[in-house]
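Researcher: Go.
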Amino acid sequence: MSARAFERAVQAALAGADVRGARLLAAVSGGPDSMALLHSLLALRQELELDIVGAHLDHGLRGEESAADAEFVRSAFDSLGLRCIVESADVAAMQAAGMSPEEAAREARYEFLARSATACGAWAVALGHTADDQAETVLMNIIRGAGLSGLRGMSALTVMRRGGAELRLLRPLLRLGREDAAAYCEVLKLSPRLDRTNLSPTYTRNRIRMELMPALESYNPAVRDSLLRLSHSASIDLAYLESEAATAWERAALEEDGSVRLRLDAFSAIPDTVARRVLRRAVRSVKGDLKDVESNHVEDMARLMAGGAGTRLDLPGGVSFEVGYEAATIAAGKTAPCVSGIEDFELQVPGRTESGSWIVDARCVERGKARLSARPDGMAASLDFEQAGLPLTVRGRAPGDRFQPLGMAGSKSLKDFLSDSRVPRQERDVTPLVVSPKGIVWVVGRRIAHWARVTEGTTSVLEIAFRPAP
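Model: Structure:
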């Protein structure tokens, strides 16, 4: 491939990103890929009206070698008359804090790039990832058991959040190979640096590149191209699913004060594969990314949403997930421990009672004027006022509670009723009970007492409706 062909391939990759007139922060390590990236952007600078700033992070892992890399990059930008932001990071200290070498280096790099892009006002950070990197990424994700997003690999343009700021990552070389980048450097008579850590079997990606890919090529010499086709196919399918998820998000999600509420009624109508993407988007909206959020976390969230109110889950990164009667809430901060019972309070009849997490409206009407209709969530009830009796209190379950469910001739233990009704264990202690001097009048959200039902002989109807406090 000629130098001109290489540059045109980069230009074609940039065409879809609308970079004309933009300032780009070019992440340059000093290796062949990043040097090819830098010089191809320079070749296109006038035509695309680009403003280029450099960025280099010394990870401090190779002593004098990495310091020499930093000086090489600094000198390269000085010779080109371009500004370059050069910093160092203590990646070893991050490893000591429990991160893997790869994870520590990645986090340090993204934090540096996000901060530098903000400081210089760059529209995006340009990275030198090639088609070989893409194939290795897809293969590594397959090994890890990733889903469709993992099969897509890296995108030509990725938007993420770091430190509260939006970070755009642009990859113009994603359709070009390492050999293309090396040949381009040779034509331009560049002398890139070689990072010896790229030869270390300590890192997973290096073993995939040096051991696994050659082994797979013995079965299929074009395995890299096969992996790239898989990535492209997954990208097409994901684009459709993400479009459907965006539509579902508008129907089901409400973002407010750093949290996301998902309406249970709207969410239940979303197809499973789209629903999982909505859940991931909700977590990303609150957390800023999906780091450490695995498919099992998403499946747990979906299962709890289908189960019922009162369930909670702590997600990675200090994010909580809690299911209420009408919506599930994803918010920053771990959930409080689920405590047994509900704080007792007396209902104002007639009137409105606000206590803890509940707002309860109650009114008495003649039987012929009763108008309260049943709600799908079971949070409204009509009772025989005289049979129910006063005062009415709301409390949680207690040992020895018995209940006569509507339609049953005799009573049974409340514990058995909740179990037979398949109420999740986590929900049983947070299910409100409306109680009169005669006993349990209503297991809220489930069933009223048979003896408190409205009959032909009822003269006054007591209408009660519960809703969560905002």
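Model: Confidence is low (pLDDT under 50) at residues 336-341.
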